Amino acid sequence: MEFSAKEIASILQGKIEGNEQVRVSNFSKIEEGKPGTLTFLANLKYTHYIYETQASIALVNDDFIPEKTLPSTLTLIRVPDAYVALASLMERVEKGKNRKKGIESPAFIASSANFSPETVYIGAFAYIGENVSLGENVEIYPHTYIGDNVTVGADTVIYAGAKIYAGCSIGKRCIIHAGAVVGSDGFGFAKEDGNYRKIPQLGNVRIEDDVEIGANTTIDRAVMDSTIIRRGVKLDNLIQIAHNVEVGKNTVIAAQTGISGSTKVGENCMIGGQVGLGGHIKIGDNVGIGAQSGVIGNVEPEKNIMGTLAFDLKDYFRSNIIFRKLPEMYKTIGQLRKEMDALQKELKIKE
To answer: Interior CA angle at 64 toward 62 and 68, to 5°?
Structure first.
């Protein structure tokens, strides 16, 4: 990559303050800015770094007002949202890279697999099963397993060591990172005479377009029908999604979260790290769940929730009833204190 400030401003529809001819060839964090790099200021906690950064160009929000003199070597490009603008520019740089093409050897590809050899990349030691369908510009990195009857949409990238079990479908422009497993059996067992009998998992996993799945994340196939990851979902590393779960579009989930079977997560939710969602519950749209929360009941849309504590079950349910009433109790106590103070003053006056 190499862009001038003028070119970047044109791409981002930004306004330049400084040398429009200055050029950059890489990105840098604002606290580690180097000459010839582009940085950005989106978080106000980092504002002090902009007055000493060595970066050549900085993306800033339109409403940024310098409180001190900026480095003479720094050119600003003002945009409505510096973080979004940075993402857009980095995406453009990423797309400008040469994508891998061709089929490396050795790789096993079933004769019934359907794809265009001229447009796809299949890395060494990959396995492509029967009746697999690969869209244009799909990249499958080495040691990847694609089971029978899997479909992979155009422009999707599946990184090394990922496993896609039979019958699953992956949408367009998805990214599946190394070690992810899509379509493994759900955790389904029936207890019989003190033993556990496995319930066959006959469904699949359906991943829609523009989904990203982090490294070593696992998504179980449904008992029947589909486990569904809707369009635009972003999953971090080391997430467990159980059978028959549905994750609504544009929801983001941080690392080490576990979602139990048949739970439905709404659209545009934000779920923090190490969250546990119980089974057969419904999380509404636009819900925020803080890190390490444990959720065992339905959550209404637009709610922000956080918290968990494990102790004796009966005591927990009793305490939970009281805990939810604490804000109301606090107000009541405050009112009682005021009334007591007023009563004491009245008694003193009478004395």
So the answer is: 150
